[in-house]
Records
---
Amino acid sequence: MATEIIELLSSREIAKMRSAGELAYELLNYLEPMVKPGVNTLALNDAAERWTQKHGAKSAPLGYHGGGQVPFPKSICTSVNEVICHGIPNARQILRDGDIINIDVTVILDGYHGDTSRTFFVGTPSPVAKKLVEVTKECLYRGIAAVKPNARIGDIGAAIQEYAEPHGFSVVRDFVGHGINRIFHAPPQIPHYGDRGKGKKLRPGMVFTIEPMINEGTWEVELQADQWTALTKDRKLSAQFEHTIAVTESGVEILTLPLKATTH
Ligand code: MF3
Ligand code: CO
Ligand code: CO
């Protein structure tokens, strides 16, 4: 394995990450009101692509083939119900009342990436869907709260796992958070499970995503023939929330929220 160097970003670079991150946040806000029964996921994709271009940015997923995969064919990921992540927008996929959909956007602005996702309800959720989505969102914020200088990567996963599992849910192993800068997926990997006190130490200037995928049933994944769409082996629900964050001298800054926003 190649030596993995974790880049520490300068405050100038973090400012650029913040601009990209805020744009990604605004893109999700723009898409949110379109999430309604009857809309198809390609319509969400096409609206996202147009909005991104209009704001002088690029969609990082379009044509992305990190790690030698087949290129991702669309601009955003739309992962509905049992799809864990990397769902491909499709005109024949029409959202129905009671669905949950994760929309994951990554924009490139001035060379830097902003990567964020939220899970939305389509119409009225079932009680279990509502609970899963609420728990998953709280997992993200508990993971973020574990970030500060000299904490360890394992502290993040431990905080997430300790919250998800007592609710009867499972934490996906096969996909992890990642370093992010001018590169979409950079070291280090950030697992959403793990042991407190283990893993590399966090340092000011590290920038990475936290993006827990939490399942109603088993954490095991099945990959579709398209080589991207990852779904739960038992076809039960999966939810996800993601932010791009920076480790600061005093703790953590969420780059995919407007600056100074401290609440979710
Ligand atoms: N945005 C996803 C992440 O959080 C990655 C999507 S890769 C794609 O890391 F090619 F599917 F877009
Ligand atoms: Co990510
Ligand atoms: Co993402």
---
Amino acid sequence: MARVNPITLAELPLRPELVGEEPYGAPQLDVPVCLNVNENPYPPSEAVRRDMAHAIAKQAGGLNRYPDREAEGLRADLAEYIGFGVGGNQIWPANGSNEVMTQILQAFGGPGRTLLTFTPTYSMYPEYARNTHTDYVTSPRDEYFGLDSARVLSAIAESGADVVLITSPNNPTGTATPVAVIDEVCAGTDALVVVDEAYQEFNDTPEDSAIALLPKYGRLIVVRTLSKAFALAGGRVGYAVAAPAVIDALRIVRLPYHLSATTQTVAQVALRHAPEMLARVDELRQTRAQMEQWLRLHGFDVVPSQSNFLLFGRFADRHAVWADFLAHGVLIREVGPEGYLRVCAGTPAEVDAFEGAVLEVCRHAEMMPAPAGEAISSKKQVRISSQGQS
Ligand code: PMP
């Protein structure tokens, strides 16, 4: 048997702020229906896979060499996909938008600097801050999970934030922040404004993007990803779009050769198939709208979403309901404001399985009291007819 050193984590000289921390991540379980991490449920098509295989086979002969450190080809292709007249010198790709965000904080956050986000929002943000020694503060969204510029600007003033992060559409609520609001925020602050548009392609008006504001604001960064719309979560490619000077700052902190040659190639092939990918996005947008309507019809509170997922509830004991879904082979996410669960748009078969599970699981689920002002009994049960209504 291999001999392993028995040292424990507690005996290691871990950075104090990491003591007691757990590695982040949603449960990765072997379950028939996975609707828990906002992935695109459709694998890349046969044609895309064939092109990827060809491109990688061709490239394999050069894998003894380091990749293009500047990812010039991929940046040019991303610029073409994005439009808005942006050039490759305004794009910075990395291993998922996770890495892009970390690089942004490595360059613009750090000791003595503060990152501000608006909750409820993406649960990874505090981790990016912790890992880059950036102070992390939050300010609440309004009762509909929305944001207006007065709210954002007063939170910036109060927190003295150096970096402000607005997620649009927001995870886990699906709420979009209009570009007009971002415009007013940028006009009203010297802080760096980062807009996380990971789910922008799923927005009903995807062209309403903060990228349109880049010519006006040098301290604006828009972050996007190929993980969702391009069905490439396993490929790990996210990117920043910003003024060339911002990109230069990110280039200072990146590790040399941070983006593998295979990653760059796979992303370039995916981008060549953009029309096909975006047709799938249209389909998923419709699926999300149908799921939203179906859940409402069945008496749930559903947060209006501009993304590929929905928050629905509100359950008195959401953990028990989540576990019951799991027992029915459907993995969803226990996340976000009290009483809600999050589900993402799946294939028709996955949606059927989810809706079937809803009818089973939620038949007797006790719901939370409605907010004051709504005349609904506090012991309201979900209205589910035994026939279902799909
Ligand atoms: N931003 C938001 C709002 C997200 O929900 C996610 C993924 N769940 C990411 C960023 C990270 O995406 P990736 O690292 O796969 O690009």
---
Amino acid sequence: MALTVVGSIAFDAVKTPFGERERMLGGAATHFALAASFFDEVRVVGPVGDDFADSDMAILATRGTSTDDVERVAGGKTFFWAGEYGWDLNSRETLDTQLGVFETFEPKLSQASREAEVLFLANIQPDLQRSVREQCEEARFVALDSMNLWIDIARDSLVRTISQVDCVILNDAELRQLTEKPNLVQAARAVREMGPDVVIAKQGEYGAVLITEGTFFALPAYPLETVVDPTGAGDTFAGGFVGYLSRHSADGLDDAVLRRAMAYGTALASYNVEEFGTERVARLTPAEIGERVADLERITRFEDAPIELRA
Ligand code: AMP
């Protein structure tokens, strides 16, 4: 099964209370591909400038990820994002966004990328997401991420794109902003009424919630003593979640598969935040992922032993 992702391939400048990097490989598609490639063949679609080194491309191509549809724009500059986190690593401030080659990007997918059965539309301008969605006619499962910027300036387009996907993965503040519902359950229902069957609410250090018609499943984040840089955690989660589903899409995506996919996404994201950018996930091993998934199963299991409660 093949999995296509379209999204930013970037250089990031990040400052957290624990250190900083002035320019490191990042971007939603990069973080997603590094995680999803543990599960399936990934094809990345997105533009870079000629400041993008072969060594950066090599990291993108980890575990055989195809970079055939990574367009190198002569004379162009790779997307650049700068952000800073305070003590509360759940909130961050964007200091700079330079679209560079994204300003003129018109996604044109190769035949191989169009044939993907599973598609992830990472956070980019919703018209671009829809153009890719429409090129992948055979996709059986399409997931989408977005951000407050597009809800602010391109809401109608975003809602149109959402109506064409199966799964929306947003943080809970974005879900509330998009739907104007303060309550998460109501917000998820409002998104499902736009079209998708599956809604994921990411909640930073508190974990993530999966909501479908018949399911409400919450998983905490993996308990870590040291978190260094949350950048890309959401995309790494999505890479684990969608990657796991891609491996299982031929068998049908039932409730148990969706729950396990949540655990893989959570385990992958927990490694991502331990170091800056892609540093930790770039040297992650399959065995390490398995360990944290097993821990999550143990941490979240409990057996009720009903007692007679006092009236
Ligand atoms: P996350 O922490 O999962 O929300 O993702 C952070 C990544 O998103 C960084 O590596 C940035 O390069 C990328 N990013 C930030 N802003 C944008 C944007 N407006 N469009 C596309 N990608 C972005």
